[in-house]
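FOLDING PROBLEM:
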Amino acid sequence: MNAEPQIARPPRVLLVDDDVDHIALCERWLTLAGYRVDTAANGPAALAHLEQARPDLVISDLVMDQMHGLQLLAEIQRHDPVLPTMVMSGKAGVPEALQAANLGVSGFLEKPFDRDALLGAVTTALGEAFVPPSTAGGLETAAGRLVYRSALMQELVARVQRVAGGSSTVLLHGETGTGKELVARAIHDLGPRRERPFVSVNCSALPEQLLESELFGHEKGAFTGAVARHIGLFQAADGGTLFLDEIGDMPLALQAKVLRALQDLTIRPVGSLQSVKVNVRVISATHQDLASMVEQKLFREDLYYRINVVPLSVPALRERAEDIPALVEYFLERLAGRTDGGRKRFAPEARAVLLQASFPGNIRQLQNVVERCLVLSNGPVIPRSLVVEALQDQTGGLPTLDEARHAFERRYIASLLRATNGNVTQAARIAGRNRTEFYNLLSRHNLEPETFRAADG
């Protein structure tokens, strides 16, 4: 894959005006700003152009020969209701401006206007669809795109690029839902280990014994239910990157073993007398204040300094609100296939609500809101009311207790099946459930024991 950051494609603007000098001036301003520009001298020519290629924005004069600008807007609205449009005129009165507003235009420019007014209006009109090409960025990873335009994220991406080529341990700090794993994946994908495995584990999701087995592996018979040899994640990530998410929740006893693995680059599977050499780069992440936890003796000081060689802070979404439009467009594009209504966009009033929201659940919450609005919207334009409803029902973007319990239960059962090589009897015994109850749990979580069975190693 390409290791360089990839910039979002330049938006295409269609200018419609019968004033040759004025359209040439606007075309020059937009082209120098990085936009792709097409022009049409009148309404019929614009409609003919739209049949050949769809722009991202149409800017039309109102008073033109052959077809009035309002007629053109009505035709565009009929054939492509989600295509953003703007109008410009030096002669339009209040009735025409109101008619244009009723047709859903995203902006109005009164002639004469200067370059800054045009570029500002275009940026606003494109809204969630695009951001200025000079500042919009998207760092591609195998797990998704790291979308940004804010100065904070530009600085973070620059640091990611600098540290990617080395092998130092990295500690990512940021609130839940900020995209720490995506940043970790970017470090891996941009570095020399990109062709080797990227393996992640959530340290808060598993009990201590299971987490130890997941990290270091175990030998057959090492504990009750260990019916087969299991390769741990340190070995699975050999030559690549191991991502330890929520490392602040790792039990103290296990922290000592992880420290030893990082110092000696060797691990010892549970129940084994032999040490195994490993070559991994470790990236850790936490939403907690590890320095404070060290002072409270809740986290080992020596491990803290070992994992904190390169600290990187992943900002909360409220600190990078200028990234919201680009993120919304990314989610709209990625989630479009889950709905039957075709391409959709947010109404200007709905977009304003998204920009003003605090998003305590960060990017994860924003994605949930966008997906919900896409699914529930009846038309091509998502109204403000749907956004308000989605934000209110998110309750801070945190999962309910039932949702959190369901997610933990699924991870726990999957870990039991991995530890027992898919043996339902052994897994049920460890879980303290009879076979019937355990099969009910498997059915509830759509887990198939067969997928966890491997050759006895």
Remarks:
- The mean pLDDT is 83.
- The two ends are 33 Å apart (CA to CA).
